[in-house]
Queue: 4 jobs
Job 1
Amino acid sequence: MAKAKSAYVCTDCGSEYSRWLGQCTDCKAWNTISEFRQAKLPVRGGNFSGFAGSVANEQASVQTLDAIDLADLPRFSSGFVEFDRVLGGGIVPGSAILIGGEPGAGKSTLLLQTMCALASSMPALYITGEESLQQVAMRAKRLGLPTNQLKMLSETSVENICHIALKEQPKILVIDSIQVMHMSDIQSAPGSVSQVRESAAYLTRFAKQYHVAILLVGHVTKDGSLAGPKVLEHCIDCSIMLEGSTDSRYRTLRGSKNRFGAVNELGVFAMTGSGLKEVKNPSAIFLSRTEEQTAGSVVMVLWEGTRPLLVEIQALVDHSALGNPRRVAVGAEQNRLSMLLAILHRHGGLQLNDQDVFVNVVGGIKVTETSIDLALILALVSSFKDNALPQDLVIFGEVGLSGEIRPVPSGQERINEAAKHGFKRAIVPFNNKPKQTIEGMEVIGVKKLSEALEVI
């Protein structure tokens, strides 16, 4: 056994130091550097070297790229189309997948449903470290899941888990959660930087060596990011977040890292009494609008991963009694809202410096792409002038600092999706305007913000 080495790691950015510092010199965060002890730990059944799970005593050799064996490891479905979409088409054998989310979001429920469905066709093992076996069994019974095939284990020792997994030979393994796992040679409490880092690395090497798909449940901090060191996200293959507020029945599954598929895919689920149910047509739930036309409300078309998504955005502009008017954005970026207000003043001739501005993306979805710009500006103008926009109007486009309307990717697909849902008019960037006329839909292409304001 190699002697344990001490190091100091920043929990925010993962930078390592030889001694403790009050501030990380890389990310400039204070009081984020913690000590951990790292030891080279052998796994029962073979010695591993690195995250890739290569056997240490094998003779290393240099190969050309075309000489590498491309043995196909076929994906297998999780049983949920939306889950498979976020994973890039299904679960890859030997992959390590990290699933994070707020408490009560439904992480354990989603994985229990997935494991019960997969247990009928392949060996599956569910490791619970936070709940007792009786609690998990009660949940499965309440959800009406098949329970005669799934194997359960209550354990928090990573060494024991891998030892038992070697005997059981599962094809898929769930660890709930990585924050309660521990290793005997690490002299710190479960959940610390060193325990989380070494436990995740140990399990990742095990997954690569024996081609076992491992799903790790991860906690989040108060700011919504995954708890633990950044190296946790580096060593795993896929990182996804299950998001959703407690007052909403809808949950969104979004991928932030995926070595086997596209990132930023979005899966939508509905939390019901019988567990999580897939939402096959997300645009329908985000477009539950009233029949009465209201000022400040408009529909925009987002592009989430590989599909378009229609979402309603609402804006409220009201006179402020404060010296510093409020700017509140729910589901949109606060800094982008401030920038668009400046563009509206400079190139649209509309000053809102004495107005409170509130923006809300309906359905609890978070929008990060720039195609929201034009829809948000026109919603602000609609609310300020108390002039309702047509119900059959859809808008998308990026607005530049000089007031130009810039094109966005997949414009044709966005317009087709809007036409499919019955929209008759669209205001889009001029370069996104289709060359052929779409039956039953009027598409208006604009080059400047002033042109868009004249249309409405």
Note: The first strand starts at residue 5 and ends at 10.
Job 2
Amino acid sequence: MADLSPIDLQKALNGMDYPADKKSLVDCARKNKADDKVVSRLGGLKENSFDGPNEVQKAVFNS
């Protein structure tokens, strides 16, 4: 998704504690007032558990 940048993702997940599940990522993004495209992308991830921000980034940008 070209209109989503790694910086948008980092801002959306600011303060996230890992490991985290997909629902926690979405909740954190909403709390941080992330753009709908970020929230939607996180909600649509195939994986459900992430050990850290690098795993989330890989899942978002390599899917």
Note: The chain has a mean pLDDT of 94.
Job 3
Amino acid sequence: MKNRSHDIETCFGDIKQNMLFRRVHLRGLQKVEAECIIVAMAHNLRKMNCASAREAA
């Protein structure tokens, strides 16, 4: 349980600090959900890119 909470905090911290995403820019629940999904997808793509770069090296 402790490790799971650590991973979640790391994810949000990475999005806030490294991707400079501090607040949503849209209004409305559907638009905010869409924006959060896009940010999460960008975060996952960035992680996949870093992992593949490490494997290639």
Note: The chain has two helices and no strands.
Job 4
Amino acid sequence: MSYEMIATLMFASMMLMLFTGQRVFAAIGFVAALSSVLLWGTGGVEIPFSSAMKLMQWYVLLTLPMFIFMGYVLSESRIADDLYRMFHVWMGPLNGGLAIGTIGLMVLVSAMNGLSVAGMAIGTTIALPELLRRGYDKIMVTGVIQAGSSLGILVPPSVVLVLYALIARQPVGQLWLAGVLPGLMMAGMFILYIYVRCRLQPDLGPPIDREELSKVTLAEKLRLLRAGLLPLGIFAAMMVPFVNGWTSLVESAAVGATTAFLVAVVKGRMTREVFENSVRKTLMISCMFMWIILAATGFGAVFDGLGAVRAIDALFTEQLHLSPWTILILMQLSFIIMGTFLDDTAMLVIVAPLYVPLVGELGFDLIWYGVLYTITTQIAYMTPPFGYNLFLMRAMAPPEISLGDIYRSIIPFVLVMALALTLVMVFPQIALWLPGYVYGQ
């Protein structure tokens, strides 16, 4: 059997196991271990073992539990409530102002957590009931929360970009900086769409009643502004030393986690229940990521040993005569298709052994491609029929919001995200300028 056929069989076997409902790490790890034993005999057991040792030696992996803990401390202690109250008071007088404030909330939550699930949970529990109570159109606000929560995997400290860095062997700091401008650009495009839409159709997002707003004093507005900007201070305490080279990535993660913990203590919100929930959820998510990375590195080692990447590169470029850009676009389309039934981590570890080296072979920048992958994943999250965010929203939304409402709500936001993806593809410097500037200094 040719190596190309073996690689195809491995990939097909893994996908078949995933369709049967097996856990992602179990499907990938089992195929990797079994293939290595069948290909190289008893010596093949060294591949999974060496993958485990490699995982334990990845110092940067220490950042994952610390970033996740930081996010859960801030969300469990309900500091995000202060954020929304700030946006409620300062943005409420505008048509669509609360929806615009919700996007701002999601950006700051992303900077606190790095996971889209946290943004979705905060958005549906804090923002959605208030938006519906204020008479906002239920279809529009449902799309706002789904689109805003997707920013969590692009704006630093994105956990997905950390995983991509580990698998693609790229600097985490450069990937984070590469995600800043595309993430802010996408948030700005969401805000512009909401503003224009609500100006044209004021009934979709009515402003707060002026009588109610007049009851809020200037002192109260300033107090809310200080409380709402507190997460920005935590983010700055973590990122400024790292960007300036004063701390390493792991040290910055420790600073962020410690600062968030101390803030919750000082504000009197670090109860035993909050601490226990934060630690338990951090351990659960961290262990899940570690198992998946372990399985992915084993699978990648076997794939690389077969020379599958070079064979597939030759198939696309020499036999099918496809241009590098055509191959890249086909990759992005495959991510959108896989995103209808897999989450971002599963997609990354399944295709990383194949796509990441192939992107390098085609001559593209792997930092830039990490941003493309992340934006495409955001689109896949919101693509019917089985987009990850669609079902999260269905599970968390009130009964009056139907699945049909959720499907209709994402159409304009998916179009905005597709435009953002196109801009980053056509103008790579949107992603590459900031890391080039900072690291060039």
Note: The chain is about 80% helix and 0% strand.
